[in-house]
Amino acid sequence: MNFNPSTDASANKAGTLFSYQKYWAECYGTAPYLPMSREEMDALGWDSCDIIIVTGDAYVDHPSFGMAVIGRFLEAQGFRVGIIAQPRWQSPEDFMALGKPNLFFGITSGNMDSMINRYTADLRMRSDDAYTPNDEGGKRPDRAVIVYSQKCREVYKDVPLVIGGIEASLRRIAQYDYWSDKIRKSVLIDSGADILLFGNAERAMAEVAHGIANGHSVKDMRDIRGTTVITDSVPNGWTEINSTRIDWPSKIDQMANPYEYAKNQKTTDNDSAEKKQGQAVTIIPLPLQGKHELDIENTYVRLPSFEKVTNDQVLYAHASRVLHQEASPHNGRVLVQKHGSKEIWVNRPPLPLSTEEIDGVFDLPYQRCPHPSYGEAKIPAYDMIKTSVNIMRGCFGGCSFCSITEHEGRVIQSRSKQSILNEIVKIKEKVPGFTGVISDLGGPTANMYGLNCTSPEIEKKCRRLSCVYPNICKHLKTDHKQTTQLYREAREIKGIKKILIASGLRYDLALRDEEYIKELVTHHVGGYLKIAPEHSEEAPLQQMMKPTIAHYEEFKRLFEQFSAEADKKQYLIPYFIAAHPGSRVEDMLQLALWLKQNKFKPDQVQTFYPSPMSLATAMYHSEHNPLKKLRYKNEKLTVAKKIEQRRLQKAFLRFHDEANWPMLREALMTIGRGDLIGTGNEHLVPPAEKRDKPRVRRGQSSRSNMKQRKKIK
Fold first, then answer.
1. Residue 685 confidence (pLDDT)
2. Which of 122, 149, 299, 599 counts the most CB atoms within 10 A of its CB?
3. 355-637 CATH, one of 3.80.30.20, 3.60.10.10, 3.10.129.10, 3.30.40.230
4. Phi and psi angles of residue 161, each rounded to the nearest 5 degrees, phi first
């Protein structure tokens, strides 16, 4: 279990993304668009594709679309890459449209998880799909990665299947599935694929592609970072940290003795597994690991099995915490989880891309437009991002309800300023109808560009789940000068009238640099700035790993001050979450009162959506907080699971909506706050009148929810 294609003579000797010896098919050059039909292949002079990417999104040749990034990257490695976009899965014909690939199928659901794409938080099927021409719904199946994989296997049984993208990435181990309300196996097992790539996949994809091209079997590729594979057993010569029982985590805000696990752990790559070959596996219980000197290269953590986490909710929460603690590319270890007689082997997280590497990925020859076969059809997701620029990857915020950190990692991977400025020029030259407005310079978070740990030594050992919660780490760079200078130079490009910032802003981080806030407010707000305090109350914010509302109020004060100085009428649009684990009806009432006091009447509000693998989803399912010590006798979290409970919490966010008044009156009476029913400024909702709309009969919505769940396989 020690094959690594990067050690192969024909592979990547220099260790960078673009230093591999190119595949022989590079002689065909660059395709104007990656082909989606035999006719396009013929025009390019291709008799076959080396790699075919199957995706749940329409093909848009733009660096914000995953299939385009991976497709163009593989093309740059010398491979002939075809695209099968949104195939009809009811029959095999579409999966045969480009013929049999010479090397493998690459399968993804697209930029979104297919279940989140198709269903609302209330389990209602959506009628639209922003990643489909003309916003048409129903163009991708439920659990698209599984369905596409099975169809590809059906038509070409011997072709390797490589799965990736966010849907596969967040299902690499056993995970709670909100739509069926049960624990599902790793998607690698359910799909029948050969290997799973998680996180930012360029590095792993290059190793897999060149490995297969050089005649290696996928079964031999067991040690590639950022991949997950299935094995019959674990190899000899490794040390197992047995974490199949509840253990005792350190506090997440401790900085001394960085994160307990790293005390005696080597984090260098100098020692190989070969020195222990032939030895049996050494098993150490998790609480005793600190007494041993462990080599990270030969150590794995055993999670509770699929069967155990299925039957024990507290163990599920424990497994979730361990997964997140092993997410650092610097000290994260291999994870192993038994599924029946098989072992899911999750390799160490992928190494972050260097600035030069990420520049290379974004500088590939994208057309920046949808494939011509779509004609004049509108693709809403493309229209939203066609004049935006992604300046970095990753997020160290660690919000418990968000999957970005689990997918892209906590280490910020920033592009060079020149690469970003060059892309703005490309937008000006290539995007049809460009008006001079750049809609966003951002990424997962707008103001994390160029911000990283200032101590390489600490970073190697750190297992903190967030660099900014419960406080901003003293080792984190918080100076926003790089971002401010980028904004200034971007505005100076000829033909650019306005640069807007639309990505989410981490306002507690921005407070460390008032000059940045002034620059943002003075030049880069188009009247409204979206921001996400998420809640007003301390208890729910703790479960979310978000800063207190006082940070938001301080940012709001500066926003208004700098707007006034610039003589601009600008407004903050705050976002809030209802029904997050740990949020009680009383908390939502306090939030509603805060909203009324601040004269906010939110139109668009969100209900917590339990996405796979997030810490908040573990809270939702287990009713325990994996951020704290786990005990079977712990007091359970308050979790709104019934549709009626979730709708009530959402109703508090829209207390001004007349349709919500009947249920709010009933709730206020139930919790002893009938004093808030009245017509004065101090009241939340008015008294009942005959014209009030009748309530849904108690239990009716819950039964409707159960019927909907049964329809979702």
1. 97
2. 149
3. 3.80.30.20
4. -115, 120
Contacts of 418 (CB under 8 A, 6+ apart): none
Rounded Cα distance, 450 and 453, in Å: 10
pLDDT score, position 635: 86
Looking at residue 285, what is its pLDDT? 83
**Same fold for the domain at 1-230 and the one at 355-637?**
no
- Tokens 């500088």 belong to which residue? 363
What is the spatial distance between Cα 63 and Cα 594, in angstroms, rounded to a whole number? Answer: 40
Q: Which residues pair with 51 in a beta bridge?
A: 81, 104
Task: Provide Rg for the chain, Cα atoms.
Answer: 26
Show the tokens assigned to 294: 């462990």
Of 711 and 37, the structure prediction assigns the larger pLDDT to 37
Classify residue 226 by its DSSP letter.
T
Scanning 342-480, the segments in alpha helix (DSSP H) are 355-362, 380-385, 404-408, 417-430, 456-461
Contacts of 192 by beta carbon, 8 Å cutoff, 6+ apart: 149, 150, 153, 161
At 657, the pLDDT band (50, 70, 90 cuts) reads: very high
Could you check whether the bond before residue 380 is cis, i.e. omega within 30 degrees of 0?
Answer: no
Contacts of 394 (CB under 8 A, 6+ apart): 352, 405, 408, 409, 410, 411, 412, 413, 443, 444, 448
- In which element (H, E) is residue 229 found? strand 227-231
Please give the Cα distance from 314 to 522 (Å, whole number): 49
CA distance 490 to 417: 9
What is the chain's mean pLDDT, rounded?
A: 91
Please give the residue that has the higher pLDDT: either 345 or 252: 345
| In the chain, where the domains are located | 1-230, 233-340, 355-637
Tens-place pLDDT, residues 409-434: 999 999 999 999 999 999 999 999 99
Contact 186, 132 (CB under 8 A): no
pLDDT of res. 403: 85
Q: In Å, what is the CA distance from 662 to each residue of 592, 642, 645, 694, 703? A: 16, 18, 14, 8, 20
State the architecture of 1-230 in CATH terms. Answer: 3-Layer(aba) Sandwich (3.40)
- Separation CA 510–CA 446 (nearest Å): 10
Q: What is the DSSP string of 557-600?
A: HHHHHHHHHTT---EEEEEEEES-TT--HHHHHHHHHHHHHTT-
Tokens of 132: 């489909």
User: Averaged over 662-682, what is the pLDDT?
Assistant: 96
Residue ranges with strand state E in 221-268: 227-231, 239-242, 265-266
Q: What is the DSSP letter of 365?
A: -
Residue 280 has pLDDT above 90, yes or no: no
Compute, in degrees rounded to 10, the torsion defined by CA atoms 664, 666, 670, 675.
70
Residues 513/487, Cβ–Cβ less than 8 Å: no
- The SS3 of residue 196 is strand
The structure's pTM equals 0.91
pLDDT 10s digits, 370-379: 999 999 999 9
Residue type, 499: I
Strands 294-295 and 265-266: parallel
3-state SS, residue 108: strand
Q: pLDDT tens-digit profile of 152-163?
A: 999 999 999 999
Closest by CA to 347, choosing from 318, 326, 320, is 326
pLDDT digits (tens, 9 = 90+) for 67-100: 999 999 999 999 999 999 999 999 999 999 999 9
Q: 3-state DSSP call for residue 677?
A: strand
